[in-house]
Amino acid sequence: MNGPRAGGATASLRWSAWPMVAWGALVWVLLWGGLQPLVLVSALPVALLCWLLTGLPAPVVPARPRLWPGLRALGALLVDLVRSTAAVVVAVVVRGPATRSAVVAVRAPSRSDVAVAVAANRVSLVPGTLVVAVDREADLLYVHCLDVRDEAGVERARARTQHAVDQVLAAFGEPAGRAAGVPADGGRP
Known about the structure:
The protein has 2 domains: 6-54, no CATH class; 67-171, no CATH class. The protein is elongated. By secondary structure, it is mostly helical. It has helices at 18-32, 37-54, 67-95, 113-125, 151-171; strands spanning 101-107, 129-135, 140-146. A hairpin with a 4-residue loop joins strand 2 (129-135) and strand 3 (140-146). Belongs to the CPA3 antiporters (TC 2.A.63) subunit E family. The chain crosses the membrane at residues 12-32, 38-61, 73-94. Its main location: membrane. This is Na+/H+ antiporter subunit E.
């Protein structure tokens, strides 16, 4: 199982790649829609072959995910879903076309693409916010926020979004305080 891989790495199957292969096997079984013996027997070889042929690296999660910060982040997501849904309804019904928006930059400093992807999805799941760009080199997420009327609203949106990102990164074991606020210019030189 050794051979060239994307990025010059070898194709040796590392322990960190098994979750991806297992996920591929589960998708294979679900695509066939049943638990027939041939589907079950072929799932792991097909998933392994797909992993080897596509050259996908195993996802890197540099720290161990933490249960309590993860549960806090999940609880905060549920609260945000309710609160933001009500805020979006008020903004659309009361202000209608006069509703203003802004794009804010928030820090997402993590060595893990998985943690950044989960943080970006968490932000985008909340009504009224949407990640429009991810800049991995600068560790920034650019987030479109609905119903931002003034500079104070921009700062509130940035702080609220930064807090959500920090919660997700903490759930992935990132050290506290790494995601310091971004300057008002969005962190651009």
